[in-house]
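TICKET: design request
STATUS: open
ATTACHED STRUCTURE:
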């Protein structure tokens, strides 16, 4: 029987030892402590820190704290034992166990009974027995659970640690779902079971052999070999989640992205997509972050096996997808020069207009290539940019889009008052070129290309949207305003505005040289040729408001009449100059009190005008809020520059009104309307209602617009759209949306979906029917989409063209 020395009540002493990073040193510390007690067994209190640490080598730096009910040394077996509620703290690692033994002859460390190891990164290991080598790097563990700091879990019958950074789990499982508190034996929402799980901390990978994916405890998929990144690791190279797709034109396809972590500040993602009907689609995205900004470069390309799948009954450029090679190259960047200035760029090169939408590379209807410089300070704003618009519809041509080279906006507010008021200077410079004329038809039944035919275009059915040629304009506008508070609380704001324009244009006649009596005279739309000139406008007026407030127990009310008067001469050259930025005019409550109601600088409002409005607001202590406005505009003198159908073409404008009601934080409605000033007929109506609660959300929108032939809308337009979602129980959500063209009696879009989600899993199944053409296709399309998201493993999806299942 071996001789042993026992140190009783060692927990009460809490000896602080200094040791190296090996179990051998741990044993040496225990031996020294035991030796100290053997020399002075009559006084256990002599076990002090100075006695122990004084016998340790002087080059040891780490601190080791051991707590246990007993410390035992068996001299014959050469075993050091810490027994009873053992706690060991070393270099950020905590070990708890019923008993810890060190065998000097075999250089092995054993921990028994309810073993718990907490590592510096927060990872927690639970086991019944742990066996380690003397350097604590390698070993064997039985019946373990590894709980990551983000609640990821590895569970295994046994595990072996090799080379200090590779752990092999036998008959193990991995999940990122938290255990059920009420029923710990309940299977997690999902887990991956495998014969072997190899966790490589150095390479930050987790590999599975003979893996089975389980959902709610039911096996649903088998994979011979499967691996993913370490859930606790940051960015690293490796495969990302694949995506599946199917359609008649593209066939069945799978996209597999691979991520290259090249450096801390730049990376690369390469995606390979195999399509059974069209071949191989390759994509690459490079991202680079610099000290003062970042940029991204994306490329995609495919050599189509069956280009004629995108052929239509049309001819010429209206079949952009009918080509062998299709691709795109894009780049974007944003950089900060200093605290005031930033610059950036965005560029898109494509073989054809519909490539990106057909292959689901974007959801945009239009792309912009631009380069810009922006400056912003307290009283100063500057923005300069060049812009090239690229439509992604087969019915719009790149040549019809204006190339802006450049547009510059500058605004400056002077710091010192002038006559007690504020002076602001606004400047706009625009230079634009278009290489093809762009007409729009008033009658939708004519088709998109009707007005581009010189034999049929006429001023009764067509609107000139864009001219062929170049125009340059410089506008500078100085504004002085001052707000004066009257004796009875009136707010009077006199204002003076001085504006000047310099312009130069060279407009080509798109029908020049075409003979025949039916050829349109382009000069009926806009005078062709070259012209240089200028124009100016000085206007003066005031804004008068008199708010009345009432506050009591049920809420606060504000009633505010507003009168605005503007005097100015007639505008000149509105009909003779190209109009690029002021074609859209929506007269409503938002611009009733605007000094100039045109949306851009190319058109200039003239004549004397008065705008009148009445505002009302109410807010209750409970949060009930109402905001309302009603008003009208009056043309008092001079020429009226507004076209028929705008609501401003008569001396007394249409009535505009708005009403916003928000009873509480979860429900709100807004209504905007315009009524004809003659017979009070409804000209325009917009209604929007939203409702949000903890479990439901809903939105209903209705839009009615009367015909506006002069603006290119020959028919009334009336649409309704609805969307919403309902959460059922703790995990289910049903959602849907639909839009309908009331005037045409046709649906626009409809979709419905179902989602199941919890803390670690999300599955969405959706159906979407787009009734309007998109991409290369003349008809609408129907799609089923399945998206699966697994916490720590990523997302994957599958999209199917539902038209593939319909019978012809």
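STATUS: resolved
RESOLUTION: sequence designed for all positions
ATTACHED SEQUENCE:
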């Amino acid at each position: 029987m071996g001789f042993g020395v026992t140190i009783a009540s060692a927990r009460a002493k809490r000896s602080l030892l200094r040791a190296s990073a090996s179990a051998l040193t741990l044993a040496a510390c225990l031996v020294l402590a035991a030796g100290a007690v053997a020399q002075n067994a009559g006084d256990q209190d002599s076990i002090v820190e100075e006695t122990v640490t004084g016998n340790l080598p002087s080059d040891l730096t780490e601190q080791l704290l051991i707590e246990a009910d007993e410390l035992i040394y068996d001299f014959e077996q050469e075993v050091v034992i810490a027994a009873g509620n053992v706690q060991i703290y070393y270099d950020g690692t905590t070990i708890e166990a019923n008993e810890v033994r060190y065998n000097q002859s075999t250089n092995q460390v054993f921990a028994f009974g309810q073993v718990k190891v907490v590592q510096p990164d927060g990872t927690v290991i639970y086991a019944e027995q742990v066996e380690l080598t003397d350097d604590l790097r390698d070993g064997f563990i039985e019946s373990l659970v590894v709980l990551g700091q983000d609640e990821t879990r590895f569970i295994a019958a046994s595990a072996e640690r090799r080379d200090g950074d590779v752990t092999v789990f036998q008959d193990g499982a991995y999940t990122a779902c938290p255990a059920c508190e009420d029923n710990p034996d309940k299977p997690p929402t999902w887990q991956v079971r495998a014969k072997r799980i190899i966790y490589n901390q150095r390479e930050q990978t987790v590999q599975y052999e003979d893996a089975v994916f389980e959902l709610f405890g039911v096996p649903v998929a088998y994979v011979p070999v499967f691996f993913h990144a370490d859930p606790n690791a940051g960015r690293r190279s490796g495969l990302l989640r694949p995506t599946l797709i199917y359609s008649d034109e593209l066939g069945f396809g799978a996209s597999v992205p691979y991520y290259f972590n090249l450096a801390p500040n730049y990376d690369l993602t390469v995606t390979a997509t195999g399509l059974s009907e069209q071949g191989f689609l390759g994509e690459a995205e490079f991202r680079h972050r610099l000290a003062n900004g970042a940029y991204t470069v994306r490329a995609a390309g495919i050599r189509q096996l069956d280009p004629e799948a995108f052929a239509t009954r049309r001819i010429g450029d209206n079949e952009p997808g009918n080509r062998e090679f299709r691709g795109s190259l894009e780049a974007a960047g944003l950089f900060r020069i200093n605290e005031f200035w930033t610059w950036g760029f965005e560029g898109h090169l494509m073989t054809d207009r519909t490539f990106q939408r057909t292959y689901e590379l974007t959801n945009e209807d239009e792309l912009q290539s631009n380069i810009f410089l922006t400056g912003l300070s307290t009283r100063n704003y500057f923005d300069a940019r060049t812009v090239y618009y690229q439509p992604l519809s087969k019915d719009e041509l790149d040549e019809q889009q204006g190339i802006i080279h450049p547009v510059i906006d500058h605004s400056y507010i002077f710091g010192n008052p002038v006559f007690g008021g504020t002076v602001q200077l606004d400047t706009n410079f625009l230079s634009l070129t278009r290489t093809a004329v762009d007409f729009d038809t008033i009658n939708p039944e004519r088709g998109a290309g009707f007005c581009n035919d010189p034999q049929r275009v006429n001023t009764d059915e067509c609107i000139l949207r864009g001219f062929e040629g170049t125009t340059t304009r410089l506008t500078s506008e100085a504004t002085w305003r001052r707000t004066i508070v009257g004796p009875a609380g009136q707010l009077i704001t006199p204002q003076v505005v001085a504006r000047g324009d310099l312009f130069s244009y060279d407009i080509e006649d798109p029908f020049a040289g075409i003979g025949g009596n039916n050829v349109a005279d382009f000069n009926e739309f806009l005078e062709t040729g070259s012209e240089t000139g200028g124009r100016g406008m000085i206007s003066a007026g005031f804004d008068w408001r008199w708010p009345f407030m009432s506050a009591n127990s049920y809420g606060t009310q504000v009633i505010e009449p507003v009168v605005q008067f503007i005097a100015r001469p007639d505008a000149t050259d509105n009909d003779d100059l190209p109009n690029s930025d002021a074609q859209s005019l929506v007269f409503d409550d938002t611009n009733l009190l605007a000094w100039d109601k045109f949306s851009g600088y190319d058109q200039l409002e003239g004549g004397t005008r008065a705008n009148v409005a009445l505002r009302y607001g109410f807010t209750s202590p409970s949060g009930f809020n109402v905001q309302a406005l009603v008003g009208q505009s009056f043309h008092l003198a001079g020429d009226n520059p507004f076209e028929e159908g705008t609501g401003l073409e008569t001396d007394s404008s249409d009535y505009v009104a708005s009403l916003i009601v928000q009873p509480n934080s979860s429900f709100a409605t807004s209504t905007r309307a315009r009524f004809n000033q003659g017979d009070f007929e409804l000209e325009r109506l917009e209604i929007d209602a939203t409702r949000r609660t903890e479990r439901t959300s809903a939105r209903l929108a209705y839009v009615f617009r009367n015909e506006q032939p002069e603006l290119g809308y020959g028919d009334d337009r009336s649409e309704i759209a609805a969307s919403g979602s309902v959460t059922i129980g703790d995990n289910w959500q049903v959602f849907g949306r639909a839009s309908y063209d009331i005037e045409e009696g046709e649906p626009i879009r409809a979709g419905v979906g179902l989602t199941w989600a919890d803390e670690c899993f999300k599955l969405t199944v959706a159906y979407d029917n787009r009734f309007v053409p998109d991409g290369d296709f003349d008809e609408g399309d129907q799609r089923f989409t399945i998206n699966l998201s697994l916490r720590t493993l990523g997302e994957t999806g599958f999209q199917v063209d539902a038209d593939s299942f319909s019978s012809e």
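CLOSING REMARK: The mean pLDDT is 84. The helical segments are 10-13, 23-39, 49-53, 355-358.
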